[in-house]
Amino acid sequence: MARAGWVVIAGLAFAFVGAPARGFEWMDVAERARSLAAEPYRDPSGRVPDWLLGLSYDQYREIRFRPAWSPWRDTPSPFEVQLFHPGLFYDRVVALNEIDAKGEATPIAFSPDLFDYGQNTFASRVPQDLGFAGFRLHYTINRRDYRDEVIVFLGATYLRAVARGQRFGLSARGLAIDTALPSGEEFPWFREFWLVRPAARARSAVIYALLDSPSVTGAYRFEVVPGAKTVVTVAAQIFFRRAVASLGLAPLTSMFFAGENGGPERRDYRPEVHDSDGLLLSDASGWRWRPLANPERLQVSTFTMISPRGFGLIQRDREFDHYQDFETRAELRPSAWIVPLNPWPAGQLRLVEIPTPSEHNDNVVAQWIAERPDDSLEPLAFSYALHFTGESPGDAQRARIVATRVAAGRDDAVQYFIDFEGDALAKISSRRVLEGVVSIDPPSAAAILDQQVLKNPATRGWRLVFQVRVSEPARLTAVLREGPNVLTERWVEDVTPP
């Protein structure tokens, strides 16, 4: 029996008529999400036994998936999928399905036999129908004879990915709801996935996901292309059970504990500890760089973007000597760069920085906050490309900010040292005069005491040095200019009185 329906992809509505021969597609996930939004939310907690949630970190790490049981191990596909066991932090189970070459969807059944429990002795207590916590895809990005772990879907709507030569670091999320609001954050979760089995010699893998939460449901399509940079193309449609105060699209989550611009007082051999060191923005007004911080108190910063071209949390510092950590290799952590693929709803980019006493907490969130009427329940569709990369996107004609250092100035002032580097800057002789243009918003909130621009003889870059005394919260911006020509991206800092 044929059926009719509709789906919205990237802001465009399509009608379709389905038939049994059509096979399972993202349109089916969108229909499920739309139907689910009309039903009351069902709390998924309680499926994982308490004793599994009480495992120690070492006990949970002992549980390993047996690669020989990978659903794609014995197929011509160059990808391989491996599965995660519930327990410890992962208190929800997700349904997993495989879509074969004919478009038929088949559940991937859980069994304790799929896992090696190591030194643990509780394998016989694990329910036979427990379910999975998540999954990861493997593909050959570093060596032809080894399939590397390239992307992980595990916990809530979190996903992490790496490109060639990288180590896992920051995370992306499917959606953020009410982040940093007094009411508390709501965490949606992907309750079901459909993994499309890639054909032989395929360069990409497609994943469908069904999102659920007390406020929204959603249908997602991910296309993963691993390589020198790993690109995940995301298309999503969101349906509402109830209105949402703050809806964050394409959220990114990272960690910043300490950097050149300071951090908590500590005894630590490592000069810097972070997965990302800055927020980069690109729109019709140009490129902006906001160095990240570990603030003394919660800090929420918003950025107006005119026709946004991209934004991301960037690990720009790639020098091992700046981290000195053999284990984490922070200089190899990926940057995440988001490029909208369709006109997004009006809104603002919001950066949330949360004080953290250790490097073990993700304390930075960047997300696009969509402007919606307070009581709106209209569905929302959007799409974007998510780049996991070692490169720092930017305008090749503009020099980049490579370091922001902060020191105490005179009479309660703060002194800033901002280093700019780029091929064009390197060619400028120290005999020429560059101007540092520092702006304050609002102008009455702070005063610039002095400033100068110096050629850096070691790097051939240039350094802007200035002191500022702050009387109320303000935003500082700075660029280097020669005559009327702006030579650099724009540095941005949010400051408060001491």
Structural class: mainly beta
Report helical residue fraction: under 10%
Helical stretch tally = 4
Q: Using the 3D structure, state the CATH architecture of the largest domain.
A: Distorted Sandwich
- Biggest sheet architecture: 15 strands, mixed
Tally of domains: 3
The dominant shape is globular
Please characterize this protein's 3D structure.
The protein has 4 helices and 35 strands. By secondary structure, it is mainly beta. The protein folds into 3 domains: 3-162 and 184-244, Distorted Sandwich (Beta-galactosidase, Chain A, domain 5), CATH 2.70.98.10; 249-389, Beta-galactosidase, Chain A, domain 5 (Distorted Sandwich), CATH 2.70.98.10; 400-495, Immunoglobulin-like (Sandwich), CATH 2.60.40.10. Strand 9 (146-154) and strand 10 (158-161) form a beta hairpin. The protein is globular and about 70 Å long. Mean pLDDT is 93; it is low at 1-20.
In short:
The chain has four helices and 35 strands.
Structural features:
498 residues; mainly beta; Beta-galactosidase, Chain A, domain 5; Immunoglobulin-like; 15-stranded mixed sheet; ten-stranded antiparallel sheet; 4 helices; 35 strands; 5% helix
